[in-house]
């Protein structure tokens, strides 16, 4: 675990869905990778425990709570002692509260979404910034959503105001990180329509049918397929080509 030449990854929100699939894909694709898989209760995810058992010494299950500064700092300190750097941080942990128009959505839903989806990645970046700077090829990638695109709001007419506003704010944060850190590859990445628990819950909550109509027009991928594409994009990304851009899963660009 003290191999300083290893590619060190941290995946936030790794217990299910896209985060879980990213951990599996990175471990399988990169034999030199050591992946820290973070979640509130990582040992409570049988699938993540299985991945950890499959890649002993290369997939480490760690407790991660979004926006918890002390926990984030302690985790960064632990990784620093073992490796002295981190190469790729994937801010994937997120929540989506009840669907609804702005006038129908209680303020608490916005507060929860902003805490996890915006403040969480900010605290994560603050904790890991020095470790990223010690990497020869540092990347900070935030998993975003088309629901956060202001320019595409008319094309994605879903009533997801608390989730969408938090993702729009996340996009701003990551683009600002790009401009403030000239040594870093940083960008928000939309994974497209993925068949996760969060996606299913969102479709179930949407009484308007708008979300179902949007998804009919998209390719609904399984998490493993989406993870393969996302990891390929990450590993081929450069600051000049990709930094500060809002990626879609087809490696094109979304409107902000």
From TrEMBL:
Annotated Gene Ontology cellular component terms: cytoplasm
Keywords: NADP, Oxidoreductase
Keyword NADP in annotation: yes
Xref: InterPro entries: Fungal_SecMetab_SDRs, NAD(P)-bd_dom_sf, Sc_DH/Rdtase_CS, SDR_fam
Coiled coil: none
Pfam family, one: adh_short
Keyword 4Fe-4S recorded: no
GO MF, one annotated term: oxidoreductase activity
Family: Belongs to the short-chain dehydrogenases/reductases (SDR) family.
Name of protein: NAD(P)-binding protein
Source organism of this protein record: Pholiota conissans
Lineage: Eukaryota, Fungi, Dikarya, Basidiomycota, Agaricomycotina
């Amino acid at each position: 675990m003290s191999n300083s030449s290893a590619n060190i990854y941290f995946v936030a929100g790794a217990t299910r869905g896209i985060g879980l699939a990213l951990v599996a894909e990175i471990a399988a694709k990169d034999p030199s990778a050591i992946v820290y898989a973070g979640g509130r209760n990582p040992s409570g995810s049988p699938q993540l425990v299985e991945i950890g058992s499959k890649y002993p010494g290369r997939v480490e299950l760690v407790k991660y709570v979004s926006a918890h500064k002390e926990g984030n700092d302690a985790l960064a300190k632990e990784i620093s002692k073992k490796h002295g750097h981190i190469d790729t941080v994937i801010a994937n942990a997120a929540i989506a509260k009840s669907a609804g128009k702005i006038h129908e959505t209680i303020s608490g839903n916005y507060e929860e979404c902003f805490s996890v989806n915006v403040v969480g990645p900010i605290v994560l970046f603050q904790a890991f910034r020095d470790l990223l700077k010690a990497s020869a090829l540092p990347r900070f990638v935030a998993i975003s959503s088309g629901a956060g695109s202001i320019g595409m709001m008319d094309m994605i007419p879903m009533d997801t105001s608390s989730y969408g506003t938090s993702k729009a704010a996340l996009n701003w944060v990551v683009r600002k990180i790009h401009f403030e850190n000239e040594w870093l590859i940083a960008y928000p990445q939309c994974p497209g329509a993925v068949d996760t628990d969060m996606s299913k819950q969102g479709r179930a909550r949407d009484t308007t049918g708008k979300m179902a109509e949007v998804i009919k027009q998209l390719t609904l991928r399984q998490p493993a397929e989406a993870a393969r594409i996302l990891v390929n994009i990450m590993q081929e990304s450069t600051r000049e080509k990709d930094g500060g851009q809002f990626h879609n899963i087809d490696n094109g660009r979304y409107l902000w």
